[in-house]
From TrEMBL:
Listed SUPFAM superfamilies: Fibronectin type III
Residue stretches spanning the membrane: none
Name of the protein in its database record: Fibronectin type III domain protein
Extent of Basic and acidic residues compositional bias: 138-148
Domain Fibronectin type-III: 1-47, 51-154, 157-240
Gene Ontology terms: cellular component: membrane
Amino acid sequence: ILPVPGDQTEYTFPAEPNQRWVIKLRATNQVGSSRWSAEQTATTRQGAPGAVRDLRVKALSPNEVHVQWLAPLVQRGTIVGYDISYRLKHRLACPEEEPRDVSRDFVTVYNHKDLDYTITGLLPYSLYEVRVRARTTELGPEETKEVSTEQQPPSSPPLNLELTYALERSLSFQWEPVDCSQRHGHIVNYEYEILGQDDWAKLERQIANTSETRITVDGLTPFTKYVMRVRAYNSIGGGQ
């Protein structure tokens, strides 16, 4: 019961969001009090919910991340959905570079109804920032996690393979690493193959691995045409 001065005909009192109140009035003088008026009900407006709880993010593949969470403990209304936002922070093979093929702006899925969501279409071996917040008629605060997508084999070959010099029985080659946006993992070595092309060297074939970007192949047949190719390997497998 709240006392109100007799010369007032309105009153404002503090209340929590989304609370239902039953209100009735009576008049009081020095002799006593009147009967209560008829009851009126009122509900305060919904407020912003609290933060979602136990936000978890897990990479499912090079291109997918699973996000799950629990509803806010403090809801201040009816939770009508969740907003899931994500953005690329950087490719892990290119930590010093700004993302060139995507925007730094967040991509947002609005008003999602469930307590989990799978984000698809992501880049391999890349660091993403993921945010989730609940909504009533207002938006709650965001909870944030970072997650790295899984690796996959390189999607392009090493660059600028070239012959550096030729001797009677040996050839030397060099190349540049795979472009960092196509590595999709940490490059651990290179596999090179050299094949004889002339009729008398059709069976000549050498395959070997190296961690360097420059090699010399010995034991070749003089005055013979060869084809050389090289591909990069990360911890998942070999590229093109």
